[in-house]
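Review form for a predicted model. The reviewer records the input and the model, then writes brief findings.
Reviewer: anonymous (R2)
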Amino acid sequence: MNHNAYSSLRQHPLNPGTTCRVAGTVPQLVRADSPAIAVMTDLPQVGAATIGADATLAEATRLMIARGVRLLLVVDRYRAIEGIITAHDTMGERPINLLRDRGGRHHELHVSDLMTPRAAIQVLDLADVLRAAVGHIVATLKECARQHALVVERDRMSGEDFVRGIFSATQIGRQLGVAIPIFEVAHSFAEIEAALMA
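Model under review:
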């Protein structure tokens, strides 16, 4: 490499009050017609939160809290996706109903007991997302009555799909400037739609 071909960049003192932003914690504000990609969690930048199907629900909950997320990708030892599990699955009514129906204790429940299996997951293609607006994503989440949607991209070399990003109703609400209650899907979308109309 010829070092003489490159000039140094201008430097300046660090301004007082400069903060450190952690990935995903300070989202930009959006509107309905903003590009959808602006509200997608880009996993190559943030890193996917994953867990094994044999982990306990308590372990899944602790990991969600530690990572500040409400969805974990359930993967096998080769990192192939087996399903997803959300905070609603681990802390909502589903564990209680399962224990009532089959018996046992909460600490005996595993991710595999309550996860949404891969065969039941619908995904979005990155190519479609790149042509969409925030309003399209809100309409999609509302139609399927889910808080999250996965975005896949096809690797050009291998031809295999990989999860590139995640949409979260909570994240979208935050970027619209709307407080979104956890677990209240219908109420959440009503709040989001009101913000989109403003």
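Findings: The mean pLDDT is 81.
Further findings: The CA atoms of residues 50 and 73 lie 5 Å apart.
Recommendation: see findings above.
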